[in-house]
Amino acid sequence: MKISIDIKSGDISKEPIKDIIVGIDLGTTNSLVAYISNNQPITVKNEDYQHTLTPSVLHFEQNGNIVVGQKAKEYLISQPERTIFSVKRLMGKSYKDIAMLKSSIGYEIIDEDKDALVKIRVDEKFYTPLELSAEILKSLKHTAESHLKTTISKAVITVPAYFNDAQRQATRDAGKLAGLDVLRIINEPTAASLAYGIGLDKSQSSNIAVYDLGGGTFDISILHIEDGIFEVLATFGDTFLGGDDFDRAIMQYWSSLNHISDQTLHDDISLNQSLRLAAENAKKTVTTNQVYSAIIDKYTVQLDLITFEKLISPLVAKTIDACAQAMKDTHLSNSDIDKVILVGGSTRIPLVKKELNVFFDQIPDDSMNPDEVVALGAAIQADILAGNRKDILLLDVTPLSLGIETVGGLMDSIISRNSKVPHRAGRQYTTSIDGQTNLRISVYQGERDLVQHNRKLGEFILRNIPPMVAGLPKIEVQFNLDADGILTVKAKELRSSVETTVEIKSTYGISEEEMALMLIDSIKNAEEDIKIRALLEAKNEANNVILAAEKFVAQNKDIFTTSEINETIKFNNLLKEAVKSNIKDQIELAMKSLNDYTTPLAHKALDVNIGKALKQTSIKS
Questions:
Q1: Stretch 198-211: mean pLDDT
Q2: Is 25 considered catalytic here?
Q3: For the chain, which residues make up each domain, given as ranges?
Q4: What is the CATH number of domain 243-312?
């Protein structure tokens, strides 16, 4: 807890300074972060102070450094094999789920096992979408910290409403790896509704359709909002439908006109990416009723609005079909929808708005920036969690994750922390030994990957399992957490119907202080990566300074005294020793000492060299 102190009086304020909790929209194409200032949500501009959007693109430099954002995007054509985009599409997916993407990307997706979660290879290293997403989140965290001049450790992160448990958990773990305590995973349509102020007035009741068409994903969600409680009545979507697919339709059109084969695009990665980026620019250009024309490599490409709408019409029709299905699931009529709000950059396309107007018989509300609305809503949700908004009812949540021990002493979370209660969840397991008739089930609470670091709540034994070959029994473990925080665990062997039930108090024996310590402990492990990266960056900078200092002495040895040269060499050698120590603070201190000593010498050398140059210059009248 931070304490406020009056500098003049020395008095300690009775009101503690609350941590800033940011809202993060981790998007397919762009990501951004927002916070609350003077009760208003504000998006943070990135390091160029020009844009709030950070492209969700990563570039791996030859030295191992990872560049995120606009600078990374600049390498999509020149080094496509080292530049990763659309990571969100890969979250929680196996290779067979995303095989169709392989022809349109420049980086390598590993396809050794079509049922295994995808990995991306860069050089001799392999990365999961979770790890790549963590790098984007680290960049957003750094941007927010630079802007707000304070450490950011807590966040609310948004996900599509249809994200499954694996995708949500992967998003939460990515935040943890980035050094963030993810207080809540919030659905993007709920966040968008909050940003529009819907639900803030508890006296109002409404049905809202949130049409979210982003770069790589689409979903339509129908929400009923009453008494400040958001209920998703239905959601329908497509994880492979978005602006990227519009770009691909344009690419295919151009390829057909210019007789560019699929094999050519597969072999010429730079041409592939050049056409993809041109298609993205063309899409934006024609949306404002301009004609796009360019020469890509040796090919002339053009596009107008009429042609563009013909190309994407089948894709837009798929989104309208999804709207119809979502409405059917709610058993509501279109006239029951009070407002249609737009989310995602692709909703700027005129055809999308026109088709939505026809379907819902009302003009969609696009009064807010569709790129920013989700992050702004996440910031409002963060503000609610911080206790600054009392006008919205938040259902109680479980303070720490609940799960069981699996093979190897691993913690398998069944109910994630901050899940709303009452809550019910279950998973299926099996035996690991032939003929096993009893199964011990140990229940834990905590955030660490190993159960030895978490708190054991209790255990019980499922007995009299019919003896079978290992892997054949189907054992369902179900957690039921009621409104009072009482956890009931049931284990049932589905083939034989043998079952056991036990009741456990989910927070028994854990104080608020212990919960806080467990959360801090879970984040410490993720922060280790950040520390290692900081050390490597410091060493790289130091090595550059060492070389510069040696060159500096060699070039100006006639200007400096013997004492000045010896002192510079001494400080440089101290920096070399600091690099060997692998202690970041020691390296930075040695760099500062060297810079402090050599700065006056640099001015001296500059004056002498300018004087020499002036003497050699003749001025003609």
A1: 83
A2: yes
A3: 18-196+368-393, 243-312, 402-510, 515-615
A4: 3.90.640.10
DSSP collapsed to 3 states, 152-208: CCEEEEEECCCCCHHHHHHHHHHHHHCCCEEEEEEEHHHHHHHHCCCCCCCCCEEEE
CATH number of this structure's domain 18-196+368-393: 3.30.420.40
Residue 229: pLDDT over 90: no
What are all long-range contacts of 146-154, with beta carbons under 8 Å and residues at least 24 apart? 146/47, 147/44, 147/45, 148/20, 148/35, 148/44, 150/20, 152/20, 152/22, 152/180, 153/19, 153/179, 153/180, 153/181, 153/523, 154/19, 154/20, 154/21, 154/22, 154/180, 154/181, 154/183, 154/382
212 is annotated as an active-site residue: yes
At 518-574, the pLDDT tens digits run 556 666 665 554 466 557 667 877 887 898 889 888 888 888 899 999 999 999 999
- Our answer to whether residue 492 is catalytic in this structure is no
pLDDT of 11 > 50? The answer is no
Dist. CA 75–CA 83, nearest whole Å: 6
Does domain 515-615 fall into CATH 3.40.50.300? Answer: no
Q: Please tell me which residue in 73, 88, 93, 492 is annotated as part of the active site.
A: 88
Measure the CA–CA gap between 183 and 67, rounded to whole angstroms: 27
Domains 402-510 and 515-615 share a fold: no
Does residue 48 register a pLDDT over 70? no
Q: pLDDT category, 26, cuts 50, 70, 90? A: very high
Token reading at 120: 């991306």
pTM beyond 0.85, yes or no? no
State pLDDT tens for residues 240-291.
Answer: 788 989 999 999 999 999 999 988 888 888 898 899 899 999 999 998 878 9
Catalytic residue check, 262: no
| Set 181, 212, 244, 355: catalytic member | 212
Q: What is the mean pLDDT of the chain?
A: 82
Tokens linked to 319: 């989104």
CATH classification code of 402-510: 2.60.34.10
Q: Which of 173, 181, 188, 383 is catalytic?
A: 188
